Amino acid sequence: MNCAACGTQLIQRSSTAKAPYRYHASGLSNVFLSGITVHACPLCKTEAPIIPRAGELHRAIADILSRKPAPLAGSEIRFLRKNIGIAGKKLAAVLGITPETLSRVENGKQSLRPGLEHLVRLLGRAAAGGETMREAVLEVADLLEGQRGEKGTIRPIQLKPDRRGGWKAAA
Questions:
Q1: Helix (H) / strand (E) containing 33
Q2: What is the pTM of this model?
């Protein structure tokens, strides 16, 4: 297989916990994948990953973000909104804010009031699936009770495919 950018023969590698693939397609700078095949160009450094079950991967990322003990960053709110499948104008209407305010939040120029961020988490949990809304509400409430006073931080998220056809957090 040749590089689409420069035509050089690609080299195949497997991503590992020590040399993971940074998953830019999520829109997040902190998502890393191990256990996948990556075709890399030795000349121009272009990488072409083979991402199995991308929908399941995005649900796993949404699940991790909605369980994050610290406040969500703007890029994480944007990821959850897109994973939910709702336009910015629609989410802004649900949250009772202007689309411009939501844009500033998603671009890290403004923070979302805590109650509104909690609603985004709940919507993200619901979209990730696997539990009832009541369970999602209780779990998010438990997480939020422990985060009072904690500042928003972006921590690395490392995932790898599991044997059951899904994705799991890499150790």
A1: strand 31-33
A2: 0.77
